[in-house]
Design a protein that fits this description.
By secondary structure, the chain is of the alpha/beta class. It has a single domain, classed as Alanine racemase (TIM Barrel, Alpha-Beta Barrel), CATH 3.20.20. It has ten helices and eight strands. Strands 7-6-5-4-3-2-1-8 form an eight-stranded parallel beta sheet. α2 crosses α3 and α5 crosses α6. Bound molecules: pyridoxal-5'-phosphate (PLP). Pyridoxal-5'-phosphate binds next to β8 and α10.
Length: 252
């Protein structure tokens, strides 16, 4: 009897700290204002940049706080961790984006629980996720992850290999191909940031066709979202600027 009671208490402490909610609500406003300013500065249509709040390592209470500030879309990297939160937050109309490395033994859980996947890199995973997508759910929205800087420490398909996976995705009934995603090599130089994002945009322009319009570019994080918006990002993935520094280092 003791253990469940203790757990509940701990959760309440994490979930109901008014200070923490205020901080997240304030940071949400700051991030929205950065997005709006970048849209204006770089001639992007107002409201054309979508925000995915990256909630990896964050407890459900902080996700509720961000939701209370008007944020419906959340990104997660680790399947098991994510599903605990998806279940705990099932009372909210949230949109869940899988942005982490896909493992073959987790494709079913991804297909069953998520609305989007940004990190598709293989035919094998595309087949599996399409087959495993429950028929009562709409097709999973997918982006193909590209290693745009050809950085050996980053996941993603070689730009030359994207063509074949795009063709496959177009034919799989459980998937709707939406665009490309990249995790760029971090740089503090805005020009270098823009150069990487521009490469992804140009690759998209080359690969897009009437049957695969690739209308989404998932690129840009807390430190470089302005550069990404300048180069055409339609989805930015922002974690620490909303939730603060992560206690646990990202494993991707
Ligand atoms: C962690 C993560 C982010 C968010 O990074 P921040 O620097 O905290 O904004 C974005 N995309 C992916 C794929 C991530 O793993």
């Amino acid at each position: 009897m003791m253990a469940p009671r203790r757990r509940k208490r701990t959760l309440m402490i994490i979930d109901d700290q008014p200070d923490e909610t205020d901080t997240i609500v304030r940071r949400m406003a700051e991030v929205r204002s950065r997005i709006a300013q970048a849209e204006a500065r770089y001639g992007r249509t107002k409201g054309s940049v979508g925000l995915v709040a990256v909630s990896k390592t964050q407890p459900p209470g902080r996700i509720r706080s961000a939701y209370s500030a008007g944020q419906p879309a959340f990104g997660e990297n680790y399947v098991q961790e994510a599903i605990g939160k998806i279940v705990a937050l099932a009372d909210l109309p949230l949109e869940w984006h899988f942005i982490g490395r896909i493992q073959s033994n987790k494709t079913r859980l991804i297909a069953e629980h998520f609305d989007w996947v940004h990190s598709l890199t293989s035919d094998h995973h595309a087949w599996r996720i399409s087959d495993q997508r429950p028929s009562h759910r709409p097709p999973l929205q997918v982006c193909i992850q590209i290693n745009i800087d050809q950085d050996p420490s980053k996941d993603g398909l070689d730009p030359q290999a994207a063509d074949a996976l795009i063709d496959l995705c177009r034919q799989l009934p459980g998937l709707t191909l939406r665009g490309l995603m990249a995790i760029t090599t971090p740089s503090i130089d805005p020009e270098a940031q823009r150069a990487s994002f521009a490469r992804l945009r140009r690759l998209r322009d080359t690969l897009a066709s009437p049957s695969a319009p690739l209308d989404q570019l998932s690129m840009g994080m807390s430190a470089d979202l302005e550069a990404a918006i300048a180069e055409g990002a339609t989805l930015i993935r922002v974690g620490s600027a909303i939730f603060g520094p992560r206690a646990q280092q990202s494993r991707t």
